[in-house]
Write a structure and sequence with these properties.
Blueprint: H1 7-25, H2 50-58, H3 72-77, H4 79-96, E1 106-112, E2 125-131, H5 133-147, H6 157-173
Antiparallel strand pairs: 1-2
Helix pairs in contact: 2-4, 5-6
């Protein structure tokens, strides 16, 4: 970001934008859902195993967000110590349908939509948010679990994953 616009201006713009969207959709009808295909039932998430968590952590990219209190490389080196706790935490989140508040925090960086645009107009920025790696991993795990229920999803796998990811994010991770 440049000195042409203040952080407060960008913050105010996005707060106003969210308020505008909420106001314009406040009278919208509730979403409609299709019934599951016959013979398809699902009642709860399959609990994650310690091995699931270890494998997932080892597959994380070697980068991390500023909001992560531990670097990914340090986490990978010590996963054998943390895996049991993390497995419990993730399974609790899945079973109660809620994630810890700390998982909902993100750093947001305003990014100019196009480099040739004037830098003093907040409308020309888009928010890039960085969630903790655990939040992203848990969200992706939920999506993977749900999109693997092929008999319940009547659309292609990529579309199903994207739709499920958006619904889970809006349900469990949105806080503003």
């Amino acid at each position: 970001m440049t000195n042409d616009i203040s952080v407060s201006d960008v913050h105010r713009f996005f707060d106003d934008k969210v308020a505008g969207v909420r106001a314009s959709t406040s009278g919208a009808s509730l979403p409609s859902y299709r019934s599951a295909l016959s013979g398809c039932s699902w009642f709860q998430f399959q609990p994650l195993s310690v091995e699931d968590v270890i494998v997932a952590v080892r597959q994380l990219p070697d980068k991390h967000c500023i909001s992560d209190s531990v670097s990914t490389s340090l986490l990978k080196e010590n996963i054998h110590v943390l895996a049991l706790f993390l497995t419990f935490l993730f399974n609790q989140s899945l079973s109660v349908g809620s994630v810890p508040v700390i998982f909902k925090a993100a750093y947001i960086t305003p990014c100019l939509k196009k480099s040739d645009l004037h830098t003093s107009d907040a409308k020309l920025y888009r928010p890039i948010f960085c969630l903790r790696c655990w939040s992203v991993w848990l969200l992706n795990s939920c999506c993977h679990i749900l999109t693997n229920l092929n008999c319940c999803l009547a659309c292609n796998r990529h579309t199903a994953h994207t739709t499920v990811q958006k619904q889970l994010y809006s349900r469990y991770f949105q806080t503003f």
